[in-house]
Amino acid sequence: MTMKNILAVFLGGAIGTLLRYWVTLGTADFVFPVGTLLVNFVGSFLLGTFTGWIIQRKVKEYMKVGFGTGLCGGFTTMSTLAADVFLLEEQSTMFTVSIYLFSSIAGGLLFAFLGLLLGHSARRLV
Known about the structure:
globular; transport
């Protein structure tokens, strides 16, 4: 672990966290946790795209960890997903909670896969 990697994760995480905060503010009026879904879907897509693009490329380690662990890790949020589940359970039905959990997990996987496909395609073009 180098200082350059640590700084890259720190800066990426700060940027990702600020972006998530702005998305959360913009979606605060919704009863359903749209903001959490949005950041997790977009973050999964971005990380999938980046992963597909960097495979077999010589990308510096600090760039990998800065974007992946830092920015995408700071942007996406598993802890808020868990908190949203408990809040929804109190305010809604188990059906709504189940739909939210299923769409979060399945959507995250789908967007990561689509991002991976895009990253592979972009890698061939560049």
